[in-house]
Specification:
single chain; 221 residues; Recoverin, domain 1; two-stranded antiparallel sheet; 9 helices; 4 strands; elongated; EF-hand-dom_pair; calcium ion binding; EF_hand_dom
């Protein structure tokens, strides 16, 4: 091969190698810049999870119920009202469950006599969405009476309640049904229905009836 041709070949190889080093260096530099960008958090795309319509409705209901019991207008209620707010929202924990499992998760870093909406809402949302404290028959019955007992005195007047039962919905009480109900529920001497006593009586009779139906009779030998 002539000298000129060999010189050209060597120059071409040298240039090719030089270009290759430049490309490798560029990749390395780009990777390093990418790492720096990741370390700085630049370029990260936040993941936004949109709440469902049901969750939004639950949040709104929780806030509205809470504010009904917020007597001072400061988005807080006394601890004693927490169970009442929960019952209003359709959850029925016992006093023991409220004291031991619920209130501790709703208290601020420095516990006091109040529970704020900020602490109440997320815990209550979890309870509602998982239906952790569903209503029992007694609770449903008491809640129905309390909706009428607007002054929270523990009873309703018989005459007032009779009028409600005669007019309720599309299936008002008939006279015989009304008489049967009042024979069991009303306190004759006061003309009132003490609904907690009535509810306890109903549940007791229901339990007795269920026990009869589920009992296994022993055959006579």
């Amino acid at each position: 091969m002539p000298i000129d041709e060999r010189s050209d070949a060597l120059l071409s190889r040298a240039n090719f190698a030089k270009m290759g080093k430049g490309k490798k260096g560029g990749k390395k530099k780009g990777a390093e810049e990418g790492k720096e960008a990741d370390a700085d958090g630049v370029g990260d795309v936040p993941v936004v999870v949109e709440e469902s319509a049901t969750t939004k409705r639950h949040r709104e209901n929780i806030k509205n119920a809470f504010l009904l019991f917020d007597k001072e207008g400061e988005e807080r209620v006394v601890q004693e009202d927490v169970r009442t707010v929960m019952r209003y929202l359709g959850q029925f924990p016992s006093d023991e469950e409220v004291e031991e499992n619920i209130l501790p998760t709703m208290q601020s870093d420095e516990p006091d006599a109040y529970v704020t909406l900020e602490k109440f809402e997320p815990r209550m949302l979890e309870i509602i969405e998982h239906n952790l404290y569903p209503a029992e028959a007694y609770d449903v019955l008491i809640s129905a009476f309390r909706a009428v007992d607007t002054e929270n005195v523990g009873y309703v007047e018989v005459e007032y309640f009779k009028e409600l039962l005669k007019q309720m919905g599309t299936h008002p009480f008939k006279q015989k049904e009304l008489e049967s109900f009042l024979n069991v529920s009303q306190d004759i001497s006061s003309g009132r229905i003490y609904y907690e006593d009535y509810a306890s009586l109903c549940i007791s009779q229901l339990d007795d009836r269920l026990a009869e139906l589920t009992s296994v009779s022993t055959p006579i030998s």
